[in-house]
Amino acid sequence: MELDIQCEEMSPSRWAELLSTMKSCKTIRLDDCNLSSSNCEDLSSIINVNPSLTELKLNNNELGDTGIEYLCKGLLMPSCSLQKLWLQNCNLTSASCETLRSVLSAQPSLTELHVGDNKLGTAGVKVLCQGMMNPNCKLQKLQLEYCELTADIVEALNAALQSKPTLKELSLSNNTLGDTAVKQLCWGLVEASCNLELLHLENCGITSDSCREISAVLSNKTSLIDLSVGDNKIGDSGLALLCQGLMHPNCKIQKLWLWDCDLTSASCKDLSRLISTKETLTEISLIDNNLRDSGMEMLCQALKDPKSKLQELWIRECGLTTACCKAVSSALSVNKHLKVLHIGENKLGDAGVELMCEGLLHPDCNIQSLWLGNCDLTAACCATLATVMATKQCLTELDLSYNSLEDEGVRKICEALRSPSCNVQQLILYDIFWSSEVDDELRALEESKPEVKIIS
Asked: What is the Cα–Cα distance from 146 to 350, expressed in whole angstroms?
């Protein structure tokens, strides 16, 4: 049994009602429910009396250090079997880390700890690392985003990594680590016995200077399948170094996020080689890099390679125009694997989308999710888009936000949605202006097809 409630103010009567339900729940999720330390006393009791509880999610509640102290009393009970604990943005400080260290040391059942968006600081996380080093700790996932960590944390993290072969996921994004610390972390990861599968280092002050060390992790850790270094200024030279590790036969990368990394079209030669030859790679994000049409054309050539197994391509805000759309269309008509294409916030225009639709309509195209928000579109391309919607049953999600479609364009899209052959389940139309008459038509459409969700 699951209890999953979000964004609900808890009155005393409602809380009392839920407490009786929680006694038999396997999963409790109470994000954004205005909970406080007093609620944690009750939750501690629930943990104690409900040995079947394996997941507790309390993100975005003002629990504070006092609340965590109450909660951990239940977590330290022998009857506790909790496996996943989410405490993101709960107003915790380093004072909570001593209590959480005790839980890590005492509860081998706990495999996931998510404590991002809390001001734990380097001193606090060093204490958590002590708990991780206890032989009883079997932690597999540790999320420490936005925890105000500095370069001084790396020595403690490396010591924990050396002693924790169970750790599979480590997220340190949005902490001011810098190149020197990231280099040290990578040296530790290469030597550690853990089979790390996920490493997130977004917005960590990384430049090309530490990319050789990250590359070494990629070529040495065959277990690493998910790497995110987005929002770091690694540039084309850093990407070239990363690709040395990514192209290594030992590297089995599946998901690679490189958004806002100061890449240009010069990186697309290496990226194309990666996409066309690394058959494990299924998802890549290149959002907010100045790749331009020439870079996109190189990527499209790679997508046409039979060895490419890419399923998701995120390429929003990359300086693309109508000029690259013929190449995109050609790739779509050949690549059977691509399921998700996020190409919004590029000046594709009606003519560009018309060209893309030729590829989308090809029998070999299997696109399920297509994002074309803020692409300078008007009603002129909506008849062709409507044809794609009514023809391609694989298409389940379409984003046309921030385009000047007006009543004429929205009506054409609605007509396609009414078609029995249309399988679009989510239509996203943010910041598009239409008349009250069209608004009524949209509401009527949602009522007649309850499986369709129109988000505006």
From this structure: 41
Which secondary structure element, helix H or strand E, spans residue 10, and what is its range?
A: none
First to last CA, the chain: 33
SS3 assignment, position 394: coil
Q: What is the C-alpha to C-alpha distance for residues 72 and 54, in angstroms, rounded to an integer?
A: 15
The secondary structure element, H or E, covering residue 82 is none
Residues 6+ apart with CB under 8 A from 237: 208, 211
Q: How far apart are CA 112 and CA 143, in angstroms?
A: 8
Q: Of 355, 207, 337, 324, which Cα lies nearest the Cα of 281? A: 337
| 31/396 Cα distance (integer angstroms) | 28
pLDDT digits (tens, 9 = 90+) for 64-87: 999 999 999 999 999 999 999 999
What's the CA gap between 348 and 333, in Å, rounded? 18
Determine the Cα–Cα distance for residues 108 and 328; give it in Å rounded to an integer.
50
Burial class, 17, CB count within 10 angstroms (exposed 0-12 / middle 13-18 / buried 19+): exposed
Contact 273, 301 (CB under 8 A): no
Burial (Cβ within 10 Å: 0-12, 13-18, ≥19) of residue 78: exposed
Run of H or E including 342: strand 340-342
Q: Which two tokens stand for residue 383?
A: 């008849």
Contact 141, 113 (CB under 8 A): yes
For residue 209, give the DSSP letter.
Answer: G
251/16 Cα distance (integer angstroms): 52
- How far is CA 394 from its chain centroid? 23
Query: Per this entry, what is the length of the chain?
Result: 456
211-269 pLDDT, tens per residue?
Answer: 999 999 999 999 999 999 999 999 999 999 999 999 999 999 999 999 999 999 999 99
CA distance 237 to 259: 15
pTM of the model: 0.94
Pairing of strands 312-314, 2-6: unpaired
Dmax over CA atoms of the chain, in Å, equals: 66
